[in-house]
Amino acid sequence: MIETNQHSRSYPGLKTYLGAWDFPTVRHLLKRTLFGATRKDIQYFQSIGFDAAINELLSDQYTEPSPPLKDYNPSSSLAPDNSIAVGETWVNDISIDGTLSSLRRSSFKKWWIGLMINQGRSIREKMTLFWHNHFSTETNDISIAQYVYQHHRLIRANSLGNFRGLLKKITIDPAM
Fold first, then answer.
1. Which residue, 22, 92, 118, 145, could crosslink 101 as a Cys pair with Cβ 3.0–4.6 Å?
2. Would you say the C-alpha torsion 71, 72, 75, 81 has a positive or negative sign?
3. DSSP track, 34-99
4. What is the distance between the alpha carbons of residues 131 and 156, in angstroms, rounded to a whole number?
5. How much of the chain exceeds pLDDT 90, in percent?
6. H helices then E strands: how many in the chain?
7. pTM of this prediction exceeds 0.70
8. What SS3 class is residue 115?
9. How far is CA 2 from CA 54, 102, 129, 170, 172, in A?
């Protein structure tokens, strides 16, 4: 595990970066590792230095985000979702109605976009998207919304870990 307060790791075969650690360089790095960086983010990473910035961006410390919530109006739906109140999560509900699943997949997509927009100072969001695309699951093709969420949860939790471990878990994931 890389922690932000530890000394930087050694990466055999990689040469130590000796270039400038200025605003344009930090901005360039953050454009590659985040979905957008504010001026405050750039100034923060510039102030902590190269090694600490890399360690923080690659930190595998992980707090699972709250699950997606029911944000659709059941009264306008063809299949009212009366078992879950608006503002509550649907991820543990066992209803397998196709119309509900469609509404829940839309809820999931809004939730995930929100996570990308409101990302922390870590490469985790970019890597979650990368692995999601790499394993080529199509959210709309998975008929059960809970499987979509569980698949995403698996990728998110393992996005910065061991590839072999992620691959083993993916092979038994119901969404695949």
1. 145
2. negative
3. SS---HHHHHHHHHH-HHHHHHHHT-----PPPPPB--S-GGGSSS--TTS-TTSB-TT-----HH
4. 9
5. 54
6. 7, 0
7. yes
8. helix
9. 10, 39, 21, 24, 28
